[in-house]
């Protein structure tokens, strides 16, 4: 009889989760089979505190689920006393599914909000009395009503911004009266005036009280309040839960950390897992400090590092490591150097396109080549910085006849076609013996195909995209699930499949839907694909224009790192020189690719913080003439013009107009540039002169890069002389402020 394979001899099973149904291990020791030494160390360390520093693709979820299952199967843990928390319903559902497959039934795996809500609902009558106020899942309308009471009118984007600020304030335990001070202390750049936001925030809280409703942040706040004030209730919770596991610990907010501390009490049976290099949600209040300070709070903690990357090829891992090698800050000091465990693969592809539509078409062509070569569409993703970039790729994929799905759409088991299919399958399982539809079926897959054929499933997918294709993809995923289930359980019945579907629905453990995934980089966290297309990697989008501070820029770098590490085999990185065909083509590839892409040199351009030497307005910046000084006939002596990015002295006239080297990255606001260009065309036609007589292209770029908010700021831009300032200044400042000027007559 051959000896069982060990991890050194290929016995390590993939870190990714199979869609098939593995057999439940027959013993506690069998739970450890297939783990590498570090994963096994995590699984066998059953008493806390334990801190697992796990790089991307190193099997962190595998390690902690096997730890829980091993403890339960050995008898060290009682399943009902274990609480595992993570950050998304999808991740919690996946964790519950894995624990079920490992024979650890009864373990609670939930999000922080879900666990807190369950406790709040149970203890509210005892702690407060009466029924728990209704939970509002979407707070946007309440925020709009609060703004209206302040006589502030917000559009959709502004509503989203203010809502985000309120959520940030609450998870950082900041009350309305302290909001402005907290923003300043955190060096946060608020989207609106802090005093105005604080007023809306205060009225939002008042409206909730008037309407007897609570929001998701209140769930955590109220649970914390009850556990702090009622020691008897806190003791009851601690008697229920004795072992805690926290996934994605780098994303914990101060409020979530406080709740965790109250759950723990004075105990230390805690296992946390995280990677500071994947901290990408600081805008929500998340901070890696709790992960990085874990040893300080728990001096006896066991630290285990997972660096064996089972997901990505050496080429992709090398690129990911190189990307972080240029990072700075505290998170960068604790970065993990990944070591790929896979065979060599193709090199990453870097592609430059003339404009964004060409970039989308290029990605679609490459995706078509991959699918024709055998890569499933469901194993391909297109990832972008903002959701607004998806439309071009939806159209390009539809034109190419490639199925796709948008990440972040409604949950699989809540889709109408899935609900109908589930009901039809349940009916067939109950009365199938009298259903002629099933007369010629011989197994579960054929039964499912027969039932779903009445709901729109066909053996061949419909052409094109849209609702019909989306419906077919949902039904096809149920057919594939039935095929996998039957392969794993040959003796199972249709009724057993219904039980499996019920359990998956309860845990939100959805089957895979075939189709290229379109998602933002933030939404892609925790996912992986065989082929990943990172698109729109131009300055101004990656990093995003409004990332100004060193901390914000480093988070943008980490966001790109997350995107790179989603790929298993194929990785494409692309950017466009212009937004639209025939548009301004002065974009440059992301500074984060400097030194990584071929021909870009070895030293990446390091952005300077505002106020640093060479930055506009800081030491070394050129002195400019203000409107007042010019009007008075006196001019300030100018010093040497210096690049506001790298600080180098400028001599070229074009570079002096931009106040930066041609090769230094641009942080142009493209929306402002497009509006300025449209406005310039109108004014030039009114004047009967060429466009450049209003402002040259270089001057428009300089304005869109600076986006001045004052007369003095605009006058400092080369190319804006006093005559043009008097004639066009009001228009330009209005455009920079986001206003639309309706008239074009001269100002003086």
Automatic annotation (TrEMBL):
One of its GO terms (biological process) is recombinational repair. InterPro entries: DExx_box_DNA_helicase_dom_sf, DNA_helicase_UvrD-like_C, DNA_helicase_UvrD/REP, HRDC-like_sf, HRDC_dom, HRDC_dom_sf, P-loop_NTPase, UvrD-like_ATP-bd. GO terms for molecular function: 3'-5' DNA helicase activity; ATP binding; ATP hydrolysis activity; DNA binding. Pfam families: HRDC, UvrD-helicase, UvrD_C. Its EC number is 5.6.2.4. ATP binds at residues 54-61. Keywords: ATP-binding, Helicase, Hydrolase, Isomerase, Nucleotide-binding. Residues 666-746 form the HRDC domain. The keyword Repeat does not apply. Belongs to the helicase family. UvrD subfamily. This is DNA 3'-5' helicase. It comes from Streptomyces tsukubensis.
């Amino acid at each position: 009889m051959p000896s069982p394979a060990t991890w050194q001899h290929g016995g390590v099973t993939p870190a990714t989760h199979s869609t098939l149904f593995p057999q439940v291990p027959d013993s506690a020791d069998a739970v450890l089979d297939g783990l590498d030494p570090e994963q096994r160390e995590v699984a066998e360390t059953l008493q806390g505190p334990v801190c697992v520093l796990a790089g991307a693709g190193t099997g962190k979820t595998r390690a902690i689920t096997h730890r829980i299952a091993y403890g339960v199967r050995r008898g060290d843990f009682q399943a009902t006393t274990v609480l595992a928390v993570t950050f998304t319903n999808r991740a919690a559902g996946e964790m519950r599914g894995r624990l079920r497959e490992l024979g650890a039934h009864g373990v609670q795996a939930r999000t922080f909000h879900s666990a807190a809500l369950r406790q709040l609902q149970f203890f509210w009558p005892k702690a407060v009395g009466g029924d728990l106020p209704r939970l509002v899942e979407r707070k946007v309308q309440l925020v709009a009503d609060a703004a209206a009471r302040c006589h502030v009118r917000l559009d959709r984007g502004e509503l989203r911004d203010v809502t985000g600020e309120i959520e940030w304030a609450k998870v950082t335990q900041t009350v309305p009266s302290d909001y402005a001070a907290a923003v300043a202390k955190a060096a946060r750049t608020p989207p609106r005036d802090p005093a105005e936001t604080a007023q809306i925030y205060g009225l939002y809280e008042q409206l909730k009280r008037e309407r007897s409703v609570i929001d998701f942040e209140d769930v955590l706040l109220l649970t914390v309040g009850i556990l702090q004030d009622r020691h008897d209730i806190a003791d009851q919770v601690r008697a229920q839960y004795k072992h805690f596991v926290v996934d994605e610990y780098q994303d914990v907010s101060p409020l979530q950390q406080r709740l965790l501390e109250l759950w723990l009490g004075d105990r230390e049976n805690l296992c946390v897992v995280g990677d500071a290099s994947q901290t990408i949600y600081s805008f929500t209040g998340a901070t890696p400090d709790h992960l990085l300070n874990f040893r300080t709070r728990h001096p006896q903690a066991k630290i285990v590092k997972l660096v064996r990357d089972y997901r990505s090829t050496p080429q992709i891992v090398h690129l990911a490591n190189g990307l972080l090698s240029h990072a700075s800050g505290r998170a960068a000091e604790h970065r993990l150097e990944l070591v790929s465990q896979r065979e060599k693969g193709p090199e990453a592809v870097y592609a430059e396109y003339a404009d964004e539509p060409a970039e989308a078409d290029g990605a679609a062509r490459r995706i078509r080549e991959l699918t024709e070569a055998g890569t499933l569409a469901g194993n391909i993703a297109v990832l972008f910085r903002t959701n607004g970039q998806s439309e071009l790729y939806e159209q390009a994929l539809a034109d190419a006849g490639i199925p796709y799905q948008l990440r972040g759409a409604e949950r699989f088991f809540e889709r109408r076609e899935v609900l109908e299919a589930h009901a039809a399958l349940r009916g067939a399982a109950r009365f199938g013996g009298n259903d002629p539809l099933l007369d010629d079926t011989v197994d579960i897959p054929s039964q499912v195909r027969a039932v779903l054929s009445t709901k729109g499933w066909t053996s061949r997918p419909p052409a094109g995209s849209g609702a019909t294709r989306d419906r077919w993809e949902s039904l096809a995923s149920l057919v594939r699930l039935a095929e996998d289930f039957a392969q794993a359980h040959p003796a199972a019945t249709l009724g057993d499949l219904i039980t499996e579907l019920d359990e998956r629905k309860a845990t939100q453990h959805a089957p895979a839907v075939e189709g290229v995934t379109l998602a933002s980089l933030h939404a892609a966290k925790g996912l992986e694909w065989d082929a990943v297309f990172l698109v729109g990697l131009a300055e101004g989008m990656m990093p995003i224009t409004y990332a100004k501070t060193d901390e914000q820029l480093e988070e943008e770098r980490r966001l790109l790192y997350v995107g790179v590490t989603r790929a298993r085999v194929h990785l494409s990185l692309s950017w466009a020189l212009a937004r639209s065909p025939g548009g301004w083509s002065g974009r440059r590839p992301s500074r984060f690719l400097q030194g990584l892409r071929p021909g870009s040199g070895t030293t990446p351009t390091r952005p300077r913080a505002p106020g640093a030497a060479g930055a506009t307005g800081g030491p070394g910046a050129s002195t400019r003439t203000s409107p007042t000084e010019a009007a008075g006939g006196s001019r300030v002596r100018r010093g040497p013009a210096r690049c506001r990015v790298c600080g180098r002295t400028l001599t070229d006239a074009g570079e002096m107009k931009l106040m930066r080297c041609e090769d230094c990255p641009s942080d142009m606001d493209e929306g402002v540039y497009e509006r300025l260009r449209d406005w310039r065309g109108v004014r030039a036609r009114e004047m009967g002169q060429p466009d450049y007589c209003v402002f040259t292209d270089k001057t428009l770029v300089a304005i869109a890069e600076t986006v001045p908010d004052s007369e003095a700021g605009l006058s400092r831009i080369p190319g804006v002389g006093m005559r043009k300032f008097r004639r066009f200044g009001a228009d330009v400042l209005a455009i920079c402020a986001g206003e639309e000027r309706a008239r074009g007559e001269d100002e003086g």
